[in-house]
Amino acid sequence: MSIIESPIAALERATGSTWSAIWSAATAAATKRSKLVSEITARKLIPPDSTFVMFGSLARNEVTPSSDLDWTLLVDGQCDTQHLRVTQEISALVIKDNKGPGPTALFGTMAFSHELVHLIGGEADTNRNTTRRILLLLESRGMFGVDDLVRDRVLRNVLKRYLHEDLGYHALHDWKIRVPRFLLNDIVRFWRTMTVDYAAKRRDRAGVGWAIRNFKLRLSRKLIFTAGLAMCMSCELCPPPRLDRYEI
Asked: How many other CB atoms are there within 10 angstroms of residue 136's CB atom?
């Protein structure tokens, strides 16, 4: 059974219903991901130590005809002047047959691992940087699936930052890490950012598009936040053996 089939099939078994619309959205997402990755690979666009990362409905298997296709060129290596050209070419591929990312410039551009890993907290950790980092953890899909080495490397370094910061405080009292509180606090901060930004966008855009943003906030955004809470709580409720040795 494929990755996109299992959760939907489990939902159908649990409810005794058929979820054809969800199947359709998942199939559309898989098709668009496959097409984009094939075109990017054929053109050899991705530089060394970089990868194409997908977010939003494209990553969550929720694509509809009006969905934005959110993506980022994730760079985990030396800066290269060609990164801008690559980003522009990928953007042209995406908007050729699809609706591109929204106007906030959160997606559809470059993201550098140094900022995601080293700028956690403080004034330098902007709302944009926090959002990219948490969404990278909670909903992203790499260009090469589970074998995307660049994305995996960045994820591990982000998690190391959170867990090692926790270790420094817990070690003072010989406590074992269970709920990673630094990560949990950042996930809560991410949720606060989304709710406050919703109100700000409604005001700045004179109410245009408020309904769809409200719906997203109440459903998909809240589910992402809940998934983050569950991930953190699972460290105490069912911790993997490697967590006690702080191996990431």
From this structure: 21
